[in-house]
Specification:
Blueprint: H1 3-27, H2 31-43, E1 51-53, E2 59-61, H3 81-88
Antiparallel strand pairs: 1-2
Helix pairs in contact: 1-2
Length: about 90
């Protein structure tokens, strides 16, 4: 089998799975994912940029390390050395 044939087969398989996903979203009335999938077909992959402007209107890059992490559970602080020693016994 040629490389072009393998690529064509993989693309068909991918497209069939995406169409089935759209059909499922339509059947279960999951409108947000349905329209998101339709737009993916219509526009293809569109990279997005996370750009922020400061008070002067200059572009500022976001530092990933400064991004807050939101979780469903509260963060538990690390145990202290004394708590760790007590738990060993």
């Amino acid at each position: 089998m040629r490389l072009a044939d393998i690529s064509r087969t993989k693309k068909k398989t991918y497209m069939k799975a995406k169409i089935e996903e759209l059909e499922t979203n339509s059947n279960i009335k999951n409108i947000r994912d349905l329209y998101r999938g339709i737009n993916d077909f219509k526009w293809g992959y569109q990279p997005t940029a996370n750009i922020v402007k400061d008070d002067k209107g200059d572009l500022v890059a976001n530092d990933v390390r400064q991004t807050e992490i939101h979780t469903a559970e509260p963060l538990v602080p690390e145990p202290s050395a004394s708590e760790f020693e007590l738990g060993r016994g």
